[in-house]
Amino acid sequence: MRVIVVGAGVAGLALARGLLNAGHEAEVYEEAPELRTAGGSVTLWPGSTGILEDLKADYTGVGRRLETLESWAADGRRLLTLDLTVAERRYGHPVVHVARHELVELLADGVPVTYGARVEHVVPERAEVRLADGRTVRGDVLVGADGRRSVVRAALWGDDRARLSPFVTWQGFTTMPTALTEERRAVMIAGGKGLCGLIPAGRGRLLWWFDVRSAPGRPFWADDPDVVDRLRERFGGWAEPVRGILDTLTDVDFFPHHRQPIPAVWGKGPTTLAGDSAHTMPPTMAQGANQALEDAWLLCRSIGDLRAYERARSKVARRPSRLAGTELTDMQRPIAGLLPDGPMSKMYAAMLRRYSNYLLTAP
Predict the structure, then answer these.
(1) DSSP bridge partners of 76
(2) Which domain holds residue 65?
(3) Is residue 302 part of a domain?
(4) Given this model, what pLDDT does residue 363 score?
(5) Which of 155, 162, 120 is nearest to 266 (CA)?
(6) Could you tell me the CATH number of the domain that includes residue 155?
(7) Which three-class secondary structure state does DSSP give residue 283?
């Protein structure tokens, strides 16, 4: 089967890789002039590391395996520790935090991609796209994996249904040594002023991010040239290593949070969607890249029945999307200190299975 994939992000590259491994033809068309490696890093839960193994994408040399996820108060008190090895033992795959550019480079290895190919027009009923250079490309199946501003989704759904959430994220990496940089711990620190997250990403890097409540449609500090000073003013009183990291900040990346309703059926005829084009969600549950990999894995197995793929994925993808849409992790409070570590670790492992078609179908 010949499959046209629009978009060379996590979903598009993983899908093409899986299709090629299964003996299909896969052609990927990407608007950017080269592989898109911008962005921070992503946490891959056991379903995703299992999918990478199925895709023959060896992730053992990248990122950092995580063993715990900790919740702290702003003064540094530990409130809750989730043991991520509970999920690793249950499902046979680890939790790994990896820089996004390393993940896309891993998935792109051996996958033919046509770069600088901007799609101008889509005919969903014929699995056909017209490129900006005048070429028309047609396949047996067309998959829009072209992100939140998807051209393919616009042809299928019309207007963009995503809406801004009341939170925004500022993030980046630090190579300043901290007590967490070489650890296998992820930490989330919540207080009245927002949330700070800290996760080691391997190779001496620590991902940091700050989530701040914003007015929907008016992103907090989005146009402020002194945003680093604003972050220092807001979070400078928090416990180490937050203060030390704030001292090292120069440039930061800004990401508004979007919420998008997920319909039961995404496509039409021989055309469907994958990744953020189908289910943009806030990053608060660390599920965006994971759900993209889940799409790719199931679509490879359902390429002959696209509506069955959409129904199965929409049912599962709605679960993390709805919870992420509440921004629950951004509103943690000291009540987390009243929750028992052991039972919560087991509940978290069970939740990860509910978020994964791959794990739900595993024996």
Answers:
(1) none
(2) 2-162+259-360
(3) yes
(4) 79
(5) 155
(6) 3.50.50.60
(7) helix
